[in-house]
Design goal:
Strand content: under 5%
Structural class: mainly alpha
Number of helices: 21
Number of strands: 3
Radius of gyration: 36 Å
Low-confidence stretches: none
Bound molecules: zinc ion
Oligomer: single chain
Shape: elongated
Order of helices and strands: EEEHHHHHHHHHHHHHHHHHHHHH
Helix content: 55-70%
Strand order of the largest sheet: 2-1-3
Length: 471
């Protein structure tokens, strides 16, 4: 089955679907509200309720998680379960009835592992859960499945054809995991024996079902191999409980893989389950902010720039000083060539961005100059900081233009010496205009004799003088 991706972000798996719009959305586009966790999110385009796809597209493939299944079997529940099997193999009296009871408890536990993994629960079922509740009959249902399999094999053996016998044998082995999965999920014998229901599991996984079978086959053999390797020299009284313990452990690992395969292919199997911890909501304010950003992006990609502007305007009314919202709003206005509105917004955006992210503010200023060649911020500090950011980006002329006649434009500004020192550096280092730099430095020295920056002025003058001598 191919994975469905977010319509707007092809790197993100789809987790939501809008039926009317025929659009898939990833978590990237649909933030969740932590204050209303049970609320079904709505479509950013049409506002109808979205349908949840669970982890159908985002689940990690089971063959990439094999170590996790082995670790899963090492939790308290599975280890206690395996220990009980080991103890029973040593001390339980030879009574068929008791063995039936033990096997039905074991089967119930194995199947609860499949079920828990089909929902991607990280914690394994406790040992206690094997002794209480429903499901003791599963063992007998499974017994019927095994019995019918053997009967089929026995019939096949009657035909006197080696090829037929092996075909039936391998066929049964291949179908068995799917049947076990069906029994674990539906708990009915009819489902475990129904070619339709069992076939659905195989069809959902496609050829990867064979990978599952291969893993299960290896795991199924593992306890016998380990026991065989230990069998030299160890007395039977040690070997039997070890074998029973390994049977329990590897059984849990196998069931965890089978269960997780169901989780992974939930979409094709008609389930929608999220992975634990995967759905974290945001506090109300952050949720609204993220939703507005996502919606504006979606609207824009759908060519609905008017609605994108509306969305951002509403979000900015709630949160006027959010940098990201302002940046998006600015980019949108600039992209739409909305000259007047963009320049009006800059009066608010530019000081904000200058304070929080000067490099971003420098970009905004260059945009503004596209609309209005002599655009000037209305604040001296903004001019100075922006000039610094522009000089850093080697936009020397643009940077210097912001500092031109600063002392006349803003006579009250207390940081003229600092700003002109910056300008002198720009002239000398950026443009190689040594004379202009020298003029500025002289101006600072004579006009602001009390400035604490005079030492720096002197140092720069020396550097500039060296530059002048070299040219
Ligand atoms: Zn997306
Ligand atoms: Zn929709």
């Amino acid at each position: 089955m191919d994975k469905t991706l977010c319509h707007y972000h092809p790197a993100h798996p789809a987790t939501w679907h809008c039926v009317p719009c025929q659009r898939h959305f990833g978590d990237c586009c649909i933030p969740l509200n932590a204050d209303a966790p049970d609320e079904t999110p709505t479509c950013p385009l049409c506002r109808s309720k979205l349908s949840f796809l669970g982890a159908a597209n985002s689940a990690q493939p089971f063959w990439e998680r094999i170590p996790r299944f082995f670790a899963y079997g090492l939790q308290a529940g599975p280890l206690a379960f395996s220990a009980v099997l080991a103890l029973a193999s040593l001390f339980m009296p030879r009574s068929i009835l008791l063995w039936f009871v033990l096997f039905s408890i074991a089967t119930k536990y194995f199947y609860s592992v499949i079920e828990a993994n089909s929902e991607a629960q990280k914690q394994a079922p406790s040992l206690l859960s094997a002794f209480v509740g429903e499901g003791f009959g599963l063992f007998f249902k499974q017994l019927v499945v095994f019995f019918l399999s053997f009967a089929t094999l026995w019939l096949a053996a009657d035909f006197d054809s080696e090829a037929l016998y092996w075909a039936v044998n391998i066929g049964l082995l291949l179908v068995l995991p799917a049947s076990i999965i069906r029994l674990a999920l539906d708990k009915t014998l009819s489902a475990a024996l129904s070619p339709d229901e069992v076939g659905q599991v195989i069809k959902a996984m496609g050829w990867r079902y064979l990978i599952l079978c291969a893993f299960l086959f290896i795991l199924w053999q593992s306890p016998s191999w380990v026991t065989y390797m230990l069998s030299h020299g160890l007395p039977r009284v040690v070997l039997v409980p070890v074998a029973a313990f390994l049977f329990g452990y590897f059984g849990v690992v196998m069931c965890a893989i089978m269960g997780y395969a169901v989780f992974q292919y939930q979409g094709a199997l008609g389930y929608a389950i999220a992975e634990e911890d995967s759905q974290t909501g945001f506090p109300a304010a952050e949720y609204l902010r993220r939703r507005a950003l996502a919606e504006a992006e979606i609207r824009l990609k759908e060519g609905q720039s008017g609605q994108a502007l509306e969305t951002l305007t509403a979000a900015l009314a709630r949160d006027p000083d959010d940098l990201k919202l302002n940046e998006r709003f600015h980019q949108l206005l600039y992209g739409l060539n909305a000259r007047e509105r963009c320049l009006r917004h800059l009066a608010h955006y530019l000081p904000l961005a200058t304070r929080m992210n000067p490099a971003q503010a420098a970009t905004a200023l260059l945009n503004a100059r596209q609309f209005k060649a002599d655009f000037m911020p209305e604040d001296a500090l903004v001019c100075e900081r922006l000039a610094g950011a522009l000089l850093d980006r080697h936009k020397t002329r643009e940077g210097l233009s912001l500092l031109r006649n600063l002392h006349q434009r803003f006579p009250e500004y207390p940081h003229i010496p600092r700003a002109y020192l910056l300008a002198a550096r720009g002239f000398a280092e950026g443009l190689g205009q040594v004379e202009s730099a020298q003029k500025l430095l002289v101006f600072v020295r004579t006009r602001y004799p009390q400035s604490p920056l005079l030492a720096e002025v002197a140092a720069l003058e020396a550097t500039v003088a060296r530059l002048a001598a070299n040219t």
